[in-house]
Automatic annotation (TrEMBL):
The keyword Metal-binding applies. Keywords: Metal-binding, Zinc, Zinc-finger. Signal peptide: none annotated. Residues 184-194 have a biased composition (Polar residues). Residues 1-21, 184-211, 387-409 are annotated as: Disordered. It holds the Pfam family zf-HIT. Residues 197-206 have a biased composition (Pro residues). GO terms for molecular function: zinc ion binding. This is Zinc finger HIT domain-containing protein 2. It comes from Quillaja saponaria.
Length: 409
């Protein structure tokens, strides 16, 4: 990316300098070669790309920041991208309406008698119709009264005050009397799943140490994909991924295109479309389908709007999730070649999460603000579709005659 600086018109050596060697200026950085270029920001003279990178950290960081922000601005949703999102939402809405047309079934007499006699009934003991009704009860919220609701940590007021040190490690924070009381109760017996996950225990290295190449502007898009999968998993496990680290990790890999499929989405629309497809798939449709997916986009917006410190804590929690799954898989007996493939995929996912965590820590506020605005615009398009779809919902046809084939006009 920075190579373009050497070929810009503003930095080309002047003709008068090349024709008159006595007027040529020595490079201000290395003091060895004649300068051929001028920094457009500080007017410093330099001779090569290497000298440009080292002449002023402020100039080079400003250049990188402007490039990333410009890339994000170009990702702003246009009419075509909005229409694509609306088509996807319309397809999901149609599938859900087809499902809602099925007749409700009741529990079989055998299942009822088993429950009344004090026996335990597992999900596998249910018939296909009973399983479908059970999943509908979960989606409608009928069973939520039996489970203590989990409040996501990123929606708490304390999430707005997360602070990290210069190297990414979490700073010591003072707790209020109410927070101390809640924390004490968690240590005495509660799960403590409502606590904000801690930040990195060791300093985060600069991205340039992890990779010699310049970070891709698409990392912002990949961040949306990864954060969505994190919010999805915590919602699914009611905030307690530690109860099933392996299962939680498998959910992350199935929802995230970047982590599970080595995907490279190029736009926020593409990233969200894949995540919504997985959310509305038969495996997870019982969670609420499209409406649940739209609420997860709100979670992504909330996390992005909190800034880099909260995102680093979320990614750090996600890294611990993957590491816990790896440890449990190692403790289990080998399961032929499948176990090795899963561990290999988890290891690669852990590296990706760590890299993007280091990248997020270095990003200025305007980059994350631009990304938040893009995700919010996609959510607005989805809500506009939902509202127009309800307004244009066709009325039930009259029962005078049944038309098997209707001519399309």
């Amino acid at each position: 990316m920075a190579d373009t600086i050497l070929t810009s018109d503003a930095d080309r050596p002047s003709t008068s300098s090349s024709l008159n060697p006595s007027s040529r200026i020595i490079c201000n950085v290395c003091q060895k070669q004649f300068s051929q270029y001028t920094c457009p920001r500080c007017n410093s003279r330099y001779c090569s790309l290497q000298c440009y990178k080292s002449h002023s950290l402020r100039c080079t960081e400003s250049f990188m920041r402007e490039n990333v922000v410009e890339e994000l601005r170009q990702m702003q949703p246009d009419d075509e991208s909005k229409q694509k999102m609306l088509d996807i939402l319309k397809r999901f809405h149609t599938e859900e309406e087809m499902d809602s047309m099925d007749e409700d079934d009741i529990l079989s007499e055998e299942t009822i008698s088993k429950v009344l006699s004090g026996g335990q009934v597992s999900f596998d003991d249910l018939s296909a119709n009973e399983k479908k009704q059970f999943q509908r009860a979960i989606a409608s919220g009928e069973l939520s009264k039996m489970i203590q609701p989990w409040d996501p940590w990123w929606l708490k007021p304390s999430a707005r005050t997360i602070s990290l040190g210069k190297e990414g490690t979490q700073l010591v924070q003072l707790l209020s009397e109410q927070e101390v009381s809640v924390s004490t109760q968690d240590h005495l017996g509660n799960t403590g799943s409502n606590e904000i996950p801690p930040g990195p225990e060791t300093p985060l290295p600069p991205v340039r140490r992890l990779s010699p190449r310049e970070p891709s502007p698409l990392l912002a898009v990949h961040l949306v994909d990864i954060v969505y999968s994190y919010c999805f998993t915590l919602r699914l496990y009611n905030g307690d991924w530690k109860s099933d680290a392996i299962g939680s990790a498998m959910v992350v890999l199935s929802v995230s295109s970047v982590l599970g499929q080595a995907g490279q989405p190029e736009t926020v629309l593409e990233a969200l479309s894949y995540c919504l497809e997985q959310t509305c798939s038969p495996a997870y449709r019982h969670m609420g389908g499209l409406q649940f997916g739209l609420s997860l986009i709100d979670d992504v917006i909330s996390l992005l709007s909190l800034g880099a410190p909260a995102l680093v804590c979320a990614l750090c929690d996600m890294q611990r999730l993957i590491q816990a799954a790896e440890s449990e898989l190692k403790a289990e007996k080998p399961r032929k070649s499948n176990g090795d493939k899963v561990r290999s995929k988890l290891k690669l996912s852990e590296r990706k999460i760590y890299f993007i965590m280091c990248w997020v820590h270095e990003q200025p506020e305007e980059v994350l603000c631009s990304l938040t605005a893009i995700v919010r615009a996609e959510k607005t398009s989805a809500l506009e579709f939902a509202g127009s779809n309800r307004a244009e919902k066709p009325k039930k046809p009259e029962t005078k005659s049944k038309v098997l084939i209707e001519e399309m006009k």
